[in-house]
Design goal:
22% strand, single chain, elongated
Length: 175
């Protein structure tokens, strides 16, 4: 009899603990955030919290020069073969964009063939050293890749034009 009841008791206890933890860790709703801010300083508390968040965004934009920049998506995705032995074992597909000062979009588009060639060389080198193996989306690995792409973009376009390289999409298909 105990053998039949024990699993049911454990199931009920486990489910109850799971629901309790889920409720406890649930993110706060916007109304609850406003209510907390209001209780800490009334309407001024809400205003201060909002102004603080806005100032954080402004500071981030000033640090990156974000207010007067444009983002230029490169026309086609990059397809990088992953070779093991003498056989293609996977393909990595990337979509990239460039961050440039306002009004420099045409400059990027005119030099896109040269830029694509340079980017492909960097991407092939990255693939050949195993950059797309294992956990290739690790932030440190992607930071090195972005840095190399930014360096070559600044060489091809100039440091005053190429501010940053953004990886919009990345996917790997194994065969």
């Amino acid at each position: 009899m105990l053998k039949k009841i024990l699993p049911l008791v454990l199931l009920l206890v486990g489910s109850s603990v799971g629901v309790g933890v889920g409720i406890f860790l649930r993110p706060e709703t916007p109304a609850k955030v406003e209510q907390t801010a209001a209780s800490n300083g009334g309407e001024e508390g809400v205003t201060k919290a909002i102004n603080h968040d806005v100032q954080d965004v402004k500071n981030k934009n000033e640090d990156t020069g974000g207010g007067d920049n444009e983002y230029v998506p490169l026309s086609n995705q990059f397809v990088i073969p992953i070779v093991a032995g003498e056989r293609v074992v996977a393909l990595v597909v990337l979509a990239l964009s460039l961050e440039v000062p306002a009004g420099q979009t045409d400059t990027v588009l005119m030099r896109e063939p040269k830029l694509r060639d340079s980017f492909l060389q960097i991407l092939f080198d990255h693939a050949n050293i195993g950059g797309f193996d294992g956990n290739f989306t690790d932030s440190h690995i992607l930071a090195r890749l972005r840095s190399a792409l930014k360096e070559v973009a600044q060489k091809d376009l100039g440091k005053d034009i190429a501010k940053d390289v953004l990886i919009n999409e990345i996917a790997r298909q194994d065969y």
